[in-house]
Amino acid sequence: MSPQYETASRHPDEPHGFGLAHRLNWLRAGVLGANDGIVSVAAIVVGVAGATTQIAPLVTAGAAGLVGGAISMALGEYVSVSSQRDSQRALIQKERRELAEQPEEELNELASIYELKGISRETARKVAEELTAHDPITAHLEAELGISEADVVSPWQAAWASAAAFFVGALLPLVAILVPPANVRVPITFAAVLVALALTGALSARIGGTHWLRPTLRVVIGGAVALAATYAIGTLLGATGIA
To answer: Are residues 227 and 190 in contact, defined by beta-carbon separation less than 8 angstroms?
Structure first.
């Protein structure tokens, strides 16, 4: 086993190796998509339930929110991540061109980067030379830009993960509002949604490597406010006869 992998195995909770952004990209999109699916569709159906107890409007509103939201999430992720990918690729191509046209200047730049980090001039120069001899593009991308070619994100991966997660997340409030009797469907939906949001908040914190409490409270409180607001508006509209 090489020293690099031996060192990495001693810290299993720390990210090591290339492709980390690529591996985490779909997880981030998936968690955010599920959270948005839960909150947005729950807010829609709870608002409608505040105005009417009929099943047909609930099914129509919930299904429209589920399908429209999943498509919107996929499109938004694709556009956003495509822009990020294009920027990453442009930086990589620029670095390749500079290495081809002015290799000595790039070597000096790499050495100066390590020297600024506290390494002596002689050692920094030696490190820069050895890394350049091994893999120049990777050495310069990591030192200068903090990226690697393996970390170029995939817009299609993010789009599909986000849409699928939104769809799955949105099914929960839709089922919770349709299955129970009319007199308990709103409180059951509230409870199911808040539990689901707590789980997505904790999962998001785990992916980000942070403590679970604060991000979980954020999504649960935010979801509770959204549900309460839409239910109050739906009840008001139903009472006034507008809906």
So the answer is: yes
